[in-house]
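quick q for whoever's on today - can somebody do inverse folding on this one?? i tried earlier but teh output was garbage lol. tokens:
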């Protein structure tokens, strides 16, 4: 307990001292982005658009203000005109940032085409499972069950009765193997292998570092990897924004992400700051890339995620595995979430006298996904 308190206090100093004026900088950046979008909007309204030039301008706008929906919208309009495969990704990001009108302006590409429906089958399935409980930096407190959570879940995914993933398609990274470079390399391998009619399952169990513009993290939250050094967290850790954007670009139309991380620095939970908050909805939404994509987090953004000595797992992961094993038919993601939403709060309230409520984004999105479905590659269908 003493180690945890000392660590939290040190990180608080890291957060508070250097960057008091960051919120103003963020507002200025979004104002610059809006000005760039205004230039591009004028180009589209005239019907005389250099789409490549527009995309370059809009890339700058998105970097300046990633939540500016109009930047994503006009990126989509330009990419659709060029038949760029990133067009769907841009449109999804525009939708998740509040855009509903996709009239692009004058000219032949004034209205964007409707997205194709989800494939009726799953060709192949891939999983990336990450669990980090030991850390190279002794200042980072250990997590007792994070690596075991990942190992246990990987076994369930490979079980032909439940997950039905081919063992060679399940990448498991725990502790010393879960470096920042190895995680990004695994994601790159998925990018090269995955096709549109595939299903991708991703799971992360580790400490998290909160997104806080007012405490020096520049609006970015981090997943703490094995090789993260506290003094270099911006360089060594894996930022949610970069990781999620790479995940969202995977071609698979069916993606499910489970985040068993939170940001509390108190004993018995997963996190590095003294503020007891979990993954917020804006962070979770970064992983989304359209119909068929779901993100389930282990707690609300003002709650901790607990580990259980009696279960030898985190509550979230234990009941996730239970949900995957239930019933004669593979459960849908919405059914899995329903099970988690019932069992996790009950167990935490009973054993920890505290609160933990898993969350799903989108809460009521179209479509659904069966994680345990038999892929076409194993069913013998062509």
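ok took a stab at it. sequence:
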């Amino acid at each position: 307990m003493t180690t945890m308190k000392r660590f939290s206090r040190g990180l608080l100093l890291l957060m508070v001292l250097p960057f008091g004026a960051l919120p103003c900088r963020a507002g200025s950046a979004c104002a610059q982005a809006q000005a760039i979008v205004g230039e591009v909007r004028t180009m589209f309204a005239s019907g005389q658009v250099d789409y490549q030039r527009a995309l370059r301008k809009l890339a700058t706008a998105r970097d300046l203000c990633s939540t500016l929906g109009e930047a994503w919208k006009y990126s989509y309009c330009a990419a659709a005109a060029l038949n760029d495969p990133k067009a769907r990704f841009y449109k999804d990001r525009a939708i998740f940032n509040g855009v509903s009108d996709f009239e692009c302006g004058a000219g032949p590409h004034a209205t964007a085409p409707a997205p194709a429906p989800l494939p009726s089958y799953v060709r192949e399935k891939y999983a990336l499972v990450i669990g980090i409980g030991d850390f190279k930096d002794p200042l980072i407190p250990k997590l007792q069950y994070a690596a075991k959570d990942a190992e246990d879940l990987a076994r369930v995914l490979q079980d032909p009765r439940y997950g039905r993933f081919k063992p060679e398609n399940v990448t498991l990274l725990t502790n010393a193997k879960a470096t920042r470079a190895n995680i990004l390399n695994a994601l790159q391998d998925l990018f090269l292998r995955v096709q549109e009619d595939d299903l991708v399952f991703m799971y992360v169990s580790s400490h998290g570092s909160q997104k806080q513009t007012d405490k020096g993290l520049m609006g970015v939250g981090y997943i703490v990897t094995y090789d993260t050094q506290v003094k270099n967290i911006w360089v060594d850790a894996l930022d949610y924004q970069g990781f999620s954007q790479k995940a969202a670009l995977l071609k698979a139309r069916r993606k499910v992400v489970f985040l068993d991380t939170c940001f509390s620095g108190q004993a018995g939970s997963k996190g590095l700051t003294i503020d007891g908050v979990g993954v917020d909805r804006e962070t979770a939404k970064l992983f989304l890339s359209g119909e068929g994509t779901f993100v389930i987090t282990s707690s609300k953004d003002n709650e901790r995620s607990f580990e259980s000595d009696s279960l030898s797992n985190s509550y979230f992961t234990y009941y996730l595995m239970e949900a995957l094993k239930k019933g004669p038919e593979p459960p849908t993601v919405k059914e899995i979430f329903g099970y988690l939403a019932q069992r996790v709060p009950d167990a935490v309230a009973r054993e920890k006298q505290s609160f933990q409520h898993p969350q799903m984004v989108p809460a009521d999105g179209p479509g659904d996904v069966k994680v345990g479905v038999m892929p076409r590659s194993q069913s013998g269908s062509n």
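fwiw The first helix runs from residue 2 to 16. also The mean pLDDT is 79. so keep that in mind when u check it
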